[in-house]
Amino acid sequence: MKKKYILLLLLLISVTTFGQYVSIPDVNFREHLKNKYPSCFDKNELLDTTCTEIVNETSLYLSQKNISDLSGLQYFKNLSFLDCGGNKLSSLPPLPKGLSILFCPSNQLISLPSLPGGLYSITCSSNKLSSLPNLPYTLVSLYCDNNLLTTLPSPPSTLVRLSCDNNLLEQLPYFYKGLEWLYCSENKIRSINSLPESLTYLVCNSNNLTELPSLTKNLGVLSCSKNQIKNLPSLPSNLYQLYCDSNNLGTLPTLPDGLQILSISFNHLTGLPKLPANLTSLQADHNCFETIPENPRPEFLTRFVVTPNNENCEAFLAKYVTIPDPNFRTFLISKYPSCFNTSQKMDTTCSKITEVTLLEASSKNIQDLDGIQYFENLYRLNCTANKLKALPKKLPPHLASLDISNNEFESLPAIPENLLQFYCSQNKLTSLPSLPPKLTALGCINNSIENLPALPDGLTDFGCSNNRLVTLPALPPLLKILNLKNNLLQSLPELPSKLTHLYCNNNELTKLPALPPTIQTLECTSNRLTALPELPSKIQSVIAYNNCFITIPYISGIYINASPNRPDCIVTGILNGSPISPGKISYHKPGYIHIHESGHLEVYNSIGSIVIKQYLREGDVLNVENLIQGVYLCVIDMEMFKFVKD
């Protein structure tokens, strides 16, 4: 039994001893390790994985060793730095947990293993990587240029430097505050999201960019050459180098005072802005300068190249137009500065012009809107309170809402067929042209219009108060709001069945047509009405004073004040056939009497008996709902009126 125990112990020792020696399969890797750590190999060229030199090693420099396989790397348990660039590696073994710097460019890597949690810097440029693993939260620098990457993983908040040039990226991830360098040239990026405030270098050449995001105040170097950028955003005051060659720039923003190098060749610039005093180098050849600029400070601006011009300048310059009205031009320049060149000509292809849908140009002293036709997608134009006397011959093709109120129009041209809303109030118009068939809202208040054209069937809102109308055309069936105040109308046509609001104050009306059941508001003051038509049950507001009423039906209360009739009305027929003064009106079924002036009130029934006698103060309300059916005569300080309880 004792011999058996001794034999078993010897076998265990033998197995353990054999297990600490491993073969390094790649001959070039093995040769490098043998030369560097000869005492860690036995006579059979097996590596002792417990060798102190291997276990305690912190740095490995393996570049340009023709290595294809790094199996055995896992035994370097304390490794913090690995340089294996310029080899023939297609993959990496599991990386030591303590690794902080990984340098593996110029290999044939198609993927990376999981990255250690404490990794500080990764350089994996010039490989065949199509994706990257999740990045550790400690990462500060990532260099992954010249690969096949289509996306990037979310970067950690610790990332300071990123270089991902020459990949297949179409977009960039969100970057946390802290990123200082971003190099992303030679990709397929169409747009860049907002940039972190910490960014100082942005190099994004050779992409598909048409614009840049707002630039951060700390940015010192911007290089965006070989894109399709038409306009640059405002440049930060800290910028000292700007490279934007081979784009579609037609103008430049204001240049910061500290700018030292400006390279803008192969664009479509027609002029230069004011050059900063610190500028030492200007490369601006192959543009479209209308006048070749001269070097303002040859002793300091030592490099100044502005010729020759582009060959296609004539075609390019054709898209620039002059806005003839100086006030309209000034307004547009203030709103869209990047769409104007240094000669204050507007780029008719500028996206901010062609894509705008709403333009508010009120109170700008504008006399001529010529140039508005280039706003191809303009939907709504508000140019009220100017000095316009005419409209341009051509308006934007998609214009649907036009407000030219408070100008100096005496006549109007044909109104665009697509217009849905048209407002021309407070002008000097005496007539309107034919109205577009799709019009839904029309406002022509405060003019001198005597006759109206046919109103479109789809019109729902019509305001034509303060004119000289004597008659109206047929009203559209969908009309909901009708404002005819302060005209000379003696009658109204049939009211549409959907009408909700009718305003016909200050006319010469003697009768109103039947009110539709949809009516909510009726204002008909200062006419010659002797009666109101039947009021629908859902009506909410009736204002009808200063007429010639004999009777007013179905009201909730009587307001005792000055006479509700106009002073020149004489009506007959309600008090024994005797003439009734303007204050003598018959009210049907009132519920309350509202007192506007203090006085003695007496209410008589039909046989002359007093049923109510009371002194009421201003603002008091007398409830008469409980009076029985009959005719009552009210006298307040000798003023008389009549009401009926049916």
UniProtKB/TrEMBL annotation:
InterPro entries for the chain: Leu-rich_rpt (IPR001611), LRR-bact_E3_ubiq_ligases (IPR051071), LRR_dom_sf (IPR032675)
Xref: SUPFAM superfamilies: L domain-like
Signal peptide: none
Gene3D superfamilies in alphabetical order: Ribonuclease Inhibitor (3.80.10.10)
UniProtKB keywords: Leucine-rich repeat, Repeat
Domain of life, source organism: Bacteria
Record family assignment: Belongs to the LRR-containing bacterial E3 ligase family.
Name the UniProt record assigns to this protein: Uncharacterized protein
